[in-house]
Design goal:
7-stranded parallel beta sheet, 6-stranded mixed beta sheet, 25 strands, alpha/beta
């Protein structure tokens, strides 16, 4: 690459002003360029150098005003006060806030472009005298909908009436707002800029050198003219003849060159004719954003790009890719400089604060000292929990083990950090939002002190940034400027987190440069990788969100969508003009029916530039390779693990039919399902256990009188609902809350109360059905049964123990006075939708859920074990497998005995030979070294499979 733009400026300054530049102020659009300028001046100077003063255009304006730019929250709050006082409306700040931000942007634009506010607002009144409001965009209409409550397309006249009442007051609101701010020594940026150029400010430097500007707002042009008239201004423009005259990228600079002449010769091709020189340009399409980031490791390792150091830049059109980009840099990259800020929203402190907010609002049970476990668990498990207390995880494990859904403050506040965490914020003051802000700042201070002991600058800086946000909000609440409800306050915190970045500190002129588009202004690079250059990112954020119609904006020189596109066109072309090695990637994936496209500027360059542009596609093997789904071969080591299995349950065997690969992960490798931590999911999973335990406790109670269950005993129990409720509470204590103490009284949440009522209802149904069978005998509850199954394998005859537990074993007398034993398995789910016609279906993976063949296999296996048990079936009675679907027991003729087709399976041994043949064949297949463990062919089963990340199906 030839001389860079800043290098050319540095050389020219030294030639014109020598080595004493102390009376010169160099003004840039942003701060970054000054670091490179210092390097160039030092390198080009022949001896000692008095450096110039560096500033940005924004800082220059602020230095010349006695006013200060107020922060955005303060501005909207004061604008709201002006609005309510002028209009007399009683809209709340919560409703006004989003709309006020848009109005503030309009005021700012009016002042930066020095428009006559009286004329602009007069025209607004004129235009709103018309019946047509079609000029409003859908976005503007949506904002008005929320603001005016009942906006609808068929009520335009009513809207017009309210709309006009606002716009007729806009000029007065504008004036009152500016006066209100000025009285406090404050202003919004546009008003401050305007006040500077309309005053007689003193400019102390001999020369103000304006470097690398593009589109100038009217306040900036007025400043340039003032300093030029005083003989204090000179200008350095960065452009290329390729786009200067006939391209929107050069629209503004081309218009300024006469009024603000360039210090460098515009005819010098060394500086201004580089775009048309030979370049190696490649466009690469991708189906995902992350694939583009992963491509970095390949791109940067080629063409000596790492060795080029600071002459190599990775530009992020979508700055949210930063985290992925950092993880994709290869180890060979030893030094990087990050200009774009790290999004605060992607740092742990963001989730930390949002979880803290929830803990003290939704997580705290109102008017009690209790908290909801779900929200307590989130904060205790958070990575910053270790900064709060070393005992956070132990406390979490204890609460989970006991299912203590509503722990009290005394049970939680076990040390200093936890006492602060579980502070009763209502004791801090009368204002809820102020209490929250005060508590959050205290938490951040505490965590910040602990984190300072760890060498993690990003963590420390993130916590500090968050502290400044919350501290500022607390100040606004204290001063009375911010008066919103708690929902808006939480939303405001979330919004500020989203808009805040954490700056990186480093040596700017060393290492690979990683930056956003705006940070590239004035800088030149040999090697460029521009990521995510899709048309929705380049140009970025191009919209016309304003309440001032386009025609009026254009007439008074306010910013329009045309300006925004031209600005980004300049950024794009200027970035590429001196680079020789350029790669641009873009996303071509289809979302919401629309296919992603490359930037319009890329298309324009293909048509107009004359460059030979290469095209490529990021294929899957160019991104991170994913583990492939497939079979698990039964290697000798795996077969050894199988041989070490001494027992299987019917559940494990059914898992094999459902998906052999999950059988491998769960049974062979022992990768068990994690305990559910979500309260609702846990409650649903434990529901069946609670019913089973309740039924067991009920029949244990009935059996205290006799093994023979009589109708009078059941009726007596049904007539005493409180007894059933007491039994259910005991089951909840044991199965959900893990408490044996009889004095403990469960505290139920909403879902648990519903489940409790459902369990009671199901138990009453079961007792009602059972009363029709009386008298009958209970032979056992939760009986453990087992048998040894021998089968042929490729290694010879093998045997394995098959075992399980029977929910209930009873002996009944049928209508024909025949006695039989029932092996009953309680089921709280839905009954089968399809019939099981043959025993062979029990050993198939088809229609498992529709036919409940997995339940059939288990019940029939248990029934066969009982049939041959001398202990459980001394009289050698017929043993029937039964599934008692509690939801299906309303039928008076309900019989839980299994059916094969339409025939009751009264005697399990009638089906024994066929069943055992199927079981032995299944076991033989499991132990066959030549048959791999394969994933199920029904991929719908993979949707909620916990092993999907391993299988990558």
């Amino acid at each position: 690459m030839n001389s860079t733009f800043l290098e050319a400026v540095a050389k020219d300054l030294l030639q014109k002003y020598g080595s004493n530049l102390s009376r010169i102020a160099v003004v840039f659009p942003n701060k970054r360029a000054s670091l490179f300028m210092t390097e160039y001046l030092a390198r080009l100077s022949d001896g000692p150098l008095w450096s110039p003063c560096y500033t940005t255009i924004s800082d220059l304006f602020r230095e010349k005003s006695e006013l200060m730019v107020a922060d955005p929250i303060k501005l909207v709050c004061d604008l709201y006060r002006s609005y309510t006082e002028i209009t007399g409306k009683d809209e709340t700040l919560d409703r006004f806030y989003g709309w006020g931000q848009l109005l503030l942007a309009d005021f700012d634009d009016i002042d930066k472009n020095m428009a006559d506010a009286h004329k602009v607002f007069a025209n607004l009144r004129d235009i709103h005298e018309l019946d047509d409001i079609d000029y409003l965009s859908p976005e503007q209409k949506n904002i008005l909908k929320s603001f005016f409550h009942n906006f609808a397309d068929d009520h335009l006249s009513k809207l017009k009436e309210r709309f006009l009442s606002l716009w007729c007051n806009l000029e007065e609101i504008y004036r009152d707002f500016n006066q209100r701010l000025a009285a406090q020594g404050l202003a919004y940026e546009g008003a401050l800029y305007r006040s500077v150029v309309e005053s007689q400010a003193d400019y102390e430097f001999d020369k103000y050198v304006f470097v690398g500007f593009n589109m100038l707002q009217q306040v900036e042009q007025r400043l340039f003219l003032t300093l030029k008239a005083q003989g204090k201004a000179c200008f350095y423009w960065d452009f290329d003849h390729y786009y200067l005259a006939n391209n929107e990228a050069g629209h503004y600079i081309n218009g300024y060159l006469t009024q603000f002449p360039n210090e460098l010769s515009v005819d010098d091709d060394t500086y201004y004719n580089n775009f048309s020189k030979p370049k190696d340009i490649t466009y690469i399409s991708s189906m995902t954003e992350s694939a583009q980031a992963h491509y970095i490791s390949q791109w940067i390792s080629e063409n000596h790009r790492i060795e080029a150091g600071a002459k190599t830049a990775i530009v992020l059109c979508d700055e949210s890719l930063l985290q992925t980009v950092l993880h994709c840099l290869p180890e060979e990259v030893k030094s990087i400089n990050i200009t774009t800020g790290y999004p605060l929203s992607q740092s742990p402190v963001a989730s930390f604060v949002l979880i803290l907010l929830r803990l003290q609002t939704y997580g705290h049970v109102k008017n009690t000292d209790k908290y909801r476990l779900r929200d307590v668990a989130k904060i205790l498990k958070h990575p910053y929990g270790r900064y709060i207390s070393a005992g956070c995880l132990d406390l979490y494990m204890e609460l989970q083990a006991c299912n203590r859904y509503y722990p009290t403050r005394s049970q939680l506040a076990l040390d200093q950090g936890l006492q602060l965490l579980f502070t009763d914020i209502d004791t801090l003051g009368d204002c809820h939002n102020q209490n929250i802000a005060q508590w959050l700042t205290a938490m951040l201070q505490y965590v910040g002190r602990k984190a300072s002991q760890v060498n993690d600058p990003l963590t420390q800086e993130s916590i500090f940034r968050m502290y400044t946000i919350i501290n500022r909000l607390e100040g606004l609440i204290t001063s009375g400027d911010l008066q919103v409800d708690k929902i808006t306050f939480e939303r405001l915190i979330a919004q500020l987190i989203q808009s805040t970045t954490v700056p990186f500190r480093g040596e700017p002129i060393e290492g690979i440069q990683i930056m956003g588009v705006l940070e590239t202004r004035n800088l030149d690079f040999d090697h460029l990788l521009v990521l995510s250059a899709s048309d929705n990112n380049m140009p970025k954020g191009v919209n016309d969100s304003s309440f001032i119609p386009y025609s009026i904006r254009k007439a008074y020189g306010l910013t329009t969508i045309d300006h925004k596109v031209a600005i980004y066109a300049y950024y794009f072309c200027r970035l590429l003009q001196r680079s020789q090695d350029i790669t641009l990637t873009y996303n071509k994936a289809t979302e919401d029916g629309q296919t992603g496209e490359m930037s319009r500027f890329m298309l324009q360059m293909m048509v107009e530039s004359g460059h030979d542009i290469h095209h490529g596609i990021l294929t899957p093997d160019q991104s991170v390779k994913q583990a492939l789904s497939g079979s698990v071969i039964k290697t000798p080591d795996l077969m050894n693990k199988l041989h070490q299995l001494t027992q299987l349950s019917p559940t494990a065997i059914n898992r094999y039919f459902y998906c052999p690969l999950t059988f491998y992960y769960n049974v062979v490798e022992g990768l068990k399902e994690p305990d559910e931590t979500d309260e609702e999911m846990k409650d649903s999973r434990v529901f069946g256990l609670i019913f089973h335990r309740s039924a067991e406790l009920i029949y244990q109670r009935l059996m205290q009188k006799s093994e023979v269950i009589k109708q009078a005993d059941i009726d007596d129990l049904l007539n005493h609902r409180e007894v059933i409720e007491m039994i259910v509470d005991q089951a909840f204590k044991e199965e959900l809350f893990k408490v044996k103490d009889n004095s403990y009284t469960p505290e139920y949440n909403g879902l648990q109360l519903i489940n409790r009522g459902v369990v009671i209802s199901y138990l009453r149904k079961m007792l009602d059905i059972d009363s029709r069978l009386t008298p009958f005998r209970i032979l056992g509850l939760e009986n453990k049964v087992e048998t040894t199954v021998k089968f042929d394998s490729t290694d010879g005859e093998r045997e394995i123990k098959v075992l399980g537990f029977i929910d209930r074993l009873d002996e009944i007398t049928d209508d024909d006075q025949q006695q039989r034993i029932r092996v009953i398995d309680y089921k709280t789910g839905m009954p089968a939708r399809k019939k099981v016609e043959e025993i062979a279906e029990l050993f198939s993976d088809a229609d498992i859920h529709a036919k409940h063949t997995n339940y059939y296999l288990q019940a029939l296996l248990y029934a066969l074990i009982v049939s041959h048990s001398q202990e459980l079936n001394q009289s050698e009675l017929a043993v029937s497998p039964a599934l008692m679907f509690i939801q299906n027991m309303s039928d008076e003729q309900y019989d839980p005995t299994l059916k094969l087709g339409d025939s009751l399976m009264v005697r399990a041994t009638d089906y024994e030979d066929e069943f055992m043949d199927g079981l032995r064949l299944t076991l033989r297949e499991i132990y066959d070294a030549d048959i791999p463990f394969e994933p199920t062919k029904d991929q719908k089963r993979c949707a909620n499979c916990i092993y999907s990340n391993l299988c990558k199906r």
